[in-house]
Amino acid sequence: MDIKLLEDFVCLVKLQSFTDAARERSITQSAFSRRIKTLEEWLGTQIINRENNLFELTPQGKLFVQEAKSILEHLYSARKSVREADPFSNKKITIAAQHSIAQTLFINWAKQLEGSLNSGYIRLSSEKLKDCVQLFSKGEVDYMLCFSNNIVSLPVNEKKFYYITVGKEKLIPISAPSIKNPKEAAFTLPGSAKNPVPFIDYTHGSSFGQAVNQIIQDKKHCCFLSRRYENDFSHIIKSMVIENLGLAWLPKSLITSELESGRLHRAGDEQWDIEFDIRLYYHASESIHAKDVLKTSFEMAQEVKQLLSK
Description:
Number of helices: 11
CATH class of the largest domain: Alpha Beta
Structural class: alpha/beta
CATH architecture of the largest domain: 3-Layer(aba) Sandwich
CATH topology of the largest domain: D-Maltodextrin-Binding Protein, domain 2
Number of domains: 2
């Protein structure tokens, strides 16, 4: 059985709301409900009373929640003991970062930080946003690097966790060069109703996908696009753009050299750009490193901000 099912159930009992629990667990309410149903199927009995409008456990649920809490406590304790037995655990910094940040900003930051690591090391998990949030919220990583703007809401409890803004990023519309005139873009915004522009999009649930869809739907930015492909990852979309399959919004830091060399061109002016903050989330109350590598979360955050501002 997946341990996440136990964590879901304990979270549901604590919040007594499917909506709030799904938000806390960073998944949709329908997916969360299915996971609780899966747990009930595994147990072979109903643990939630669905005949009552108010949240209520069945007698079996009341019995099982105590067992679930005990199982999780033992598992977490065992994990902590094993990690503490690792001779390198006090020298390790763990970070979850969205893929695009891991490929660009993190690499630049790591180069600047290299001299101060001494005998310590960094373990980087490069994930989708929802996976980064889960890793960070469950305490499996010390820090989280992610994109944020006024369009995209992050499923992070900001009463429990803190952040600082350590950088900026822009999504800009990009196209391969025109075959007839390599100094111009093959595809440009806004297109027309008769000739919509081939478009490579992010998946709708991703932070970039939400932001791009918002600007497309904005009445100030009337455009005509024909969605051809969809993918989660900027580097894959970049490869498709280079192959002249359509235009796409790409992180500026990911395509700097291609813009300079003329391998890629802007497909629209700055009114089409989408700005993002890059946030570093940290656990405010925990001091998680030891000896020379040891820093409080706030000190680490400030160091990252200073390095990235150079």
